[in-house]
């Protein structure tokens, strides 16, 4: 699944074809092309959902992915209702929503890369559905690379990270891990270049800012290093807060009892405010 800036695009006299970009796995370009050519809103909604799935997988944000998958299913149904059966069929073929559900399920609970497995073949077997789906293949390969790195097998780890990058050039965590291997091997300048490329893809990725700071410090550029690490700390706090809020919202959506408690708390808060105001007026 790619999102490369180097793929051949339409020429200047031909309107951009969202389907051509989608077939190449370039979902951001597919969405942009659909918007430029005035595609039906049901189609742009479906493409937005696919892109959100891809970005959520790259960021390892399960709540975002689950929400996007729900939006995608609704949008695909809307395409049929609008009489856009051909567009629905193409997206079904490219995205395979049912296959995607299985692929995402085997990534759940993967943590930092092993999910409990300590043997790479066992992990590869577990990740087979994710390896087979274009939207999750890069993430599965990245997980395999992490396990190889933990087992102190840098050559195998590098091969997995590079394969992940080939599957999805926008998978910035796999690129970060390539930089980490360079850093561990004493190639600080090469690691720096990798991290700067990551930040071009995702300027707010705290992990890349932190590791860039380490690479700069190893090159004696202490002042620059401090700035990168401080930025990483700020972004890390913000990311943690966002994740906590997202997990709470997800919990409320999935648990009816929590939704009831939330409503009760809101009613109590309004009641308390009313009594306070009434007392002040009296």
TrEMBL record:
Transmembrane segments: 263-281
Keywords associated with the record: Membrane, Repeat, TPR repeat, Transmembrane, Transmembrane helix
Pfam families for this protein: TPR_16, TPR_2
PROSITE patterns listed in its UniProt record: TPR
The TPR repeat ranges on this chain: 172-205
Cleavable signal peptide: none
Cell inner membrane is among the record's keywords: no
Domain of life: Bacteria
Protein name: Tetratricopeptide repeat protein
